[in-house]
Amino acid sequence: MAGSAVAAGAAALGATGIASADEPAAPVSSWKIAPEPIGDDQIAETFEADLVVVGAGAAGCMATATAVDDGASVILLQKDEEPFCHGYAFAANGTSKQKEAGVEVDGWEVMNHINLLSENKAKTEVIRNWVKYSGEMTDWLAEKIDGVEGVGPIILESPEPADDEWNYTFTVTHLPVGNFTPIGSVPPVIKYLIAECDPALLDAHYNTPAVQLRKDESGRVTGVIAQREDGSYILCNAKKGVILCAGDYGNDLEMRDELMPYAKGLPAGYAKKTDTGDGHKMAVWIGAAMEPAPHACNIHYDPELKYPNYQGTVMPWLRVNANGERFSNEDVPYEQIYAKDMHNPGLMHFQVFDADYTTTWKEMGKGGAMRANWDEIVPQALEAGDLRVGETLEELAEAMEVPVDVFVATVERYNELCDKGYDEDFGKQAARMKKVATPPFYAFARQASCLTPLGGLEIYGNMQVLDESGKPIEGLYAAGNNSGNFFGGFVQRMCAPGFGVGRAFLTGRVAAKRAIGAEY
């Protein structure tokens, strides 16, 4: 029977095993469909430089500053009105900051750990760049900004030792502390890098998004067409290369749903809606390959979107859904909490605890995301009116707008398990089973967001973009979230905070060095 089934299947597919020609082809995603080429007769003005950098985020500004520092001329195209990024820190290793603090970390231990937790999907030649060059990059950056008020200095974060295997962090996180803005302390750094570039070598165009890449007859990328605010087009020719640093695709829902289906329905975490995959699309339109889906994502609970933002999401208090039901073992790493929410109504949960939090939170664990101070969090949220409160469980349920009888039964069952000292329903470790029994009772509403899609174009270790056959596209490079092959799995592991910006800085610098042929 098995042989007959195989034969029948082969016959249905044809001798080659390929679907027959009369079967309808799978629909092509709209974001992959190239627009009509913009002709020379539509170009209002032409510019030329050694490099064209598309995007003035963390990767683009680092690439631009690196190239200009090495004497190359750069045309910088930015969709927004100024350089823009998010982020508070960046991960690097082998830095002078670490040496001054007496910190020794094996860069390969960090990268191998992250890669294996990411399904071993990274290309070794890509992550090797972080091991080899992130220290030099940080020292170069520190020399530029450490003495600049409102920008530097850069300090090394020293994480508290964790008391379990999940909440530890490597000592690789570097923090610019000159100016903490609502979107981080890295934005002042990238603005400074651009402001300090030699104006004779930098030609920056803001509010001028790139729209198409240009190739010559050999297939080499020779430039970029961009569109001004008045609708006119400019052609920016690149003598040495084009570097795509145009950001992620978090605000293109078609791309997100196709490339990150596990995160479907989560809100986009960044306030600006300009990250729509422009760099990925332009490259795909000329034959570039995207790394296979699913792509990794930086999923966070901290941006303030539907619910007010307070630290402490990882704290394993009782969690219930919008139906008032417990649904998981609460004792999991921060970046994996969202996965259970994806099965819950509203893709959210409530964190439920009682008045004894002032003592019990200190018994819950330490290290990594567990370091949030609940003695500060709760009073702040109460004063702002952002915390659900009830003198009874019934009152709390009403404040949460969940079914009262279901919620009360859930808490009673949870308390019973706490008394037993064994979670026979979900397997949570006994030390983190804390009863909800002392009024007043509290609940935080939590919902994750898709902060940054981390997938991108297929690249070599030199950041050169590859085509669908795996061959390099001459003249085309990608960095930051336009580049792939660095993260794998579903989510970015948080054992090295700052890897999003760290990867952007590092890939931008490597791409610039390789594109202009500088020694590195």
Distance between the termini: 62 Å
The beta-strand count equals 17
**CATH fold description of the largest domain:** FAD/NAD(P)-binding domain
Radius of gyration in whole Å, from Cα? 25 Å
Count of alpha/pi helices? 14
User: What is the helical fraction, as a range of percent?
Assistant: 25-40%
CATH architecture title of the largest domain: 3-Layer(bba) Sandwich
Number of domains: 2
Highest CATH level, the class of the largest domain: Alpha Beta
Taking pLDDT < 50 over at least 5 consecutive residues as the criterion, the unreliable ranges are 1-19
Beta-strand portion reads: 15-25%
Largest sheet: 8 strands, mixed
- By CATH, the superfamily of the largest domain comes out as FAD/NAD(P)-binding domain
Class per helix and strand makeup: alpha+beta
Mean pLDDT: 93
Shape by Cα distribution: globular
